[in-house]
């Protein structure tokens, strides 16, 4: 068994274990393979092992991989920062966008979503740790943005995404996710069913607090060569 296959089995085992401990239904957490900086061949290897959802941060790199892997039935997620001049190809070539943090970007994605495609699945990025270095709407401004984005015709608002401040302590890892989940539940919007959080270092904490999609890169593909 090659390294990717071994890592894939290990990550899936970790997810199943955390789901079990949390008392959640089997299959309630989707593995999202973060393939940025990794070659198309690695994505193909994971696809053949059964992985279908892949996430990219860099648009041009992602579009190149999509061309190389056009024969594969991959669901592509965009999780990187979004510039206004990049919204059209994102709206055209992805099924999910996790990093919408302001109304202007959401409006452009809605306007530029091709008519022959289903509505674009959207998660709003929340700056849950209030870090100056990170994008995201504040927890206080989230309710207003939810109401604005959910009205856009070619988008399907699904939930939230967050990247908390790095923390090694398990109990402290859980705290920001708990705050975010509680804030979303208080909005009383049942359609907000997707919680995109948890990475290689805090997978268990995220699942314990309600993650429905965990974004895993390093634990699947190995260390990145560049960012």
TrEMBL record:
Keywords for the protein's UniProt record, in alphabetical order: Pyridoxal phosphate
Coiled-coil regions listed in the entry: none
Modified residues (N6-(pyridoxal phosphate)lysine): 36
Top-level taxon in the UniProt lineage: Bacteria
Domain Alanine racemase N-terminal stretches: 10-224
Alphabetical list of InterPro entries matching this protein: Ala_racemase_N (IPR001608), PLP-binding_barrel (IPR029066), PyrdxlP_homeostasis (IPR011078)
Similarity annotation: Belongs to the pyridoxal phosphate-binding protein YggS/PROSC family.
Role, per record: Pyridoxal 5'-phosphate (PLP)-binding protein, which is involved in PLP homeostasis.
Protein name: Pyridoxal phosphate homeostasis protein
Native source species: Methylomonas rapida
């Amino acid at each position: 068994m090659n390294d990717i296959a071994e890592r894939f089995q290990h990550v899936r085992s970790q997810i199943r274990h955390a789901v079990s401990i949390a008392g959640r239904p089997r299959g309630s957490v989707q593995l999202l393979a973060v393939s940025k900086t990794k070659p198309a061949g690695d994505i193909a290897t994971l696809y053949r092992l059964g992985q279908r959802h892949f996430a990219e941060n860099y648009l041009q790199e992602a579009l190149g991989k999509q061309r190389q892997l056009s024969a594969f039935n991959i669901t592509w997620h965009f999780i990187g920062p979004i510039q206004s001049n990049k919204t059209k190809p994102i709206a055209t070539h992805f099924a999910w966008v996790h990093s919408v943090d302001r109304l202007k970007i959401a409006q452009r994605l809605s306007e530029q979503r091709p008519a022959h495609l289903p509505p674009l699945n959207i998660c709003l990025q929340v700056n849950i740790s209030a870090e100056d270095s990170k994008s995201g709407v504040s927890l206080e401004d989230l309710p207003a943005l939810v109401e604005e984005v959910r009205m856009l015709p070619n988008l399907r608002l699904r939930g939230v995404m967050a990247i908390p401040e790095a923390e090694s302590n398990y109990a402290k890892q859980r705290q920001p996710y708990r705050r975010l989940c509680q804030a979303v539940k208080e909005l009383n919007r049942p359609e907000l069913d997707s919680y995109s959080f948890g990475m290689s270092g805090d997978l268990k904490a995220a699942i314990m607090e309600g993650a429905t999609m965990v974004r895993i890169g390093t634990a699947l593909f190995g260390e990145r060569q560049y960012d």
